[in-house]
Amino acid sequence: MQSKYQELTITLEDRFVDLISDFVANIYGDGIEMGEGRIIVRSEHDLDYVKTAVESLAQTLGESISLSCEIQERDNNDWVQQYKDSVQSIEAGRFFIHPSWQEAKKDKINILIDPALAFGSGHHGSTFACLEAIGSYATDKHRLLDVGCGSGILGLAARKLGACVDLCDTDPVSVESTRENFLLNHESYETLWEGSVNKTDKKYDIVIANIIADVLRAIALPLKEKVKENGILIISGILDTKASMVLDTYSDLVLLERKQKEEWVTLIYKKEIYGQASK
How many CA atoms lie within 13 A of 154 on its CB side? Predict the structure, then answer.
């Protein structure tokens, strides 16, 4: 263990803590501590690239988010244990998501996720709503595709319900994290690949994409194409300020539910054979 480590403190509005934490977790593999209006990242390695990436994301999101970043060098201590102590388990619908060092719940479907490996530990509003949707729609009769799988938590939830699962993500860190989390949970998937939805020719009973609004609009056609007739499409990661644009893009499908947790919107569609035209 080195005698010094770097500590990156990100100060921001409390409502954006989950979003930025998940983003950082997608590019950084060690412990992330979340608090009210702040995120703390610690490492024995240089954290300048994390700081630069966060500041770049804030600029991309524009006026909707304001944050500041500061890196300090500190004397080393057992910050990994401090991080573990700070992680909280969460109940989302039928599921209980918890790290490997915490107890499972007998009356819930348990999913082991050691957070800070990749996007998705259940705490983020969009991930929470997607877990609720999976609990309502996925069964052992379904084939499901998780697009932008992150940590693999949504695919794991579907697999726990007996569904046959494929997953993909454009980020290789997320692909590896998904692989590790399926092993951790002693579950199996059919196919996992690096890339997006256009790399498969299969059709699915359920397609789920928890990404961001702009990407959901950009890949709308291939997402719709991969849903079987009378199948379900679940899309999330949509800020409420951008929901109307996404609704317009998917207006050729039948909207079954609109769920909102905090400022995050999740839309659940059906691709009907008859009625509205579907692609």
Answer: 37
